[in-house]
Fold this sequence. Notes:
Elements: E1 3-4, H1 5-12, E2 15-17, E3 23-24, E4 26-27, E5 37-40, H2 47-52, E6 57-60, E7 71-73, H3 77-89, E8 105-106, E9 111-112, E10 117-118, E11 123-124, E12 129-130, E13 135-136, E14 141-142, E15 147-148, E16 153-154, E17 159-160, E18 165-166, E19 171-172, E20 177-180, E21 185-188, E22 191-194, E23 200-203, E24 208-209, E25 214-216, E26 222-225, E27 230-231, E28 236-237, E29 242-243, E30 248-249, E31 254-255, E32 260-261, E33 266-267, E34 272-273, E35 278-279, E36 284-285, E37 290-291, E38 300-302, E39 307-308, H4 309-341
Parallel strand pairs: 4-5, 5-6, 6-7, 8-11, 9-12, 10-13, 11-14, 12-15, 13-16, 14-17, 15-18, 16-19, 17-20, 18-23, 19-24, 20-25, 23-26, 24-27, 25-28, 26-29, 27-30, 28-31, 30-33, 31-34, 32-35, 33-36, 34-37, 36-38
Antiparallel strand pairs: 1-3, 2-7, 21-22, 38-39
Amino acid sequence: MSITVRELATWVGGEVAGNGDQAILRACPLVDALSGDITFVEDDRHLHDWHVSKASAAIVRASVPLNGRPLIYVDDPLMAFASIMKRLRGDSFGKVSNRIHHSACVHPSAVIGAEAMVGPFAVIGKGCVIGARATIHPGAVLGQNCHLGSDVTLYPHVVLYDDCVLGDRVVIHANSVIGSDGFGYRPQNGRHVKVPQLGHVEIGDDVEIGAATTIDRGTFGATRIGLGTKIDNLVQIAHNCQIGQHNLLVSQVGIAGSCVTGDYVVMAGQVGVADHITIGERSQLGAQCGVIKDVVPDSRLWGTPARPDKETLRLFVLQEKIPEIVRDLKQLKQKLERKDVA
């Protein structure tokens, strides 16, 4: 597929500088781009790479000067490039080829929405409702009475246990498990006896969940993920959690049962949260934070146990000085002992 720089600019509402008739065949990142490709320069740190690149054109911010090749000026080069790359690949990218593949197992009571697609060896259980234009990739499994909104995408081998509810435009990546039993046991007569996990999971509109993430069903009610929240790969969210809107949960975050987060909370990689904790809105938890008590709104925490980030940084500096402090104390002790002897 060949298209001009000028036509690409219309797709993203950009302004062309230089030869708008330059033909473009592909969209490629800066380090891989060749003649015939369009690339992008997100900030001035990559200007040298752009100048030595073989790419035929670039998507840039207004501060980048012409260097003999056409440019498309936009406010956000990365997102404009992503939009162009997606369109150049075609609308079928990431879609299964047939509406309902002959090898899929779809219960007769299930309702499949208009233009929805169900891939090979997918399983759709009794009473499920699949919204319009949903895409169920090969090997995905839906238990009974799952309800999916419009434009949902479940990638290969996603598993939804019974009664999961997904809003519109939810994306769940491969091998994630939604609605598995929470880890609940009571000691009785010297044994760990399972507490029945009878609730479900509700996921709001525009949520994206990474690969191999697990979200447990509620014990009796719902585990909820708020609208617009983005969850990375390998995240564990335990039973009864109530995750707010537009949270960002980075890889290997672990949240124990019955926790609540406000809106716009950010948890960096490997944050761990103890059970029954409330984290206030707009709080930011640094990598490997260990949260053992409630967090007030707008907090910026780091370390284990979690403390204000500046306090944790001071402690890190002090830790590096401990050998020097110990040496000085020994020397001081020796001086005092000599004085006592004298």
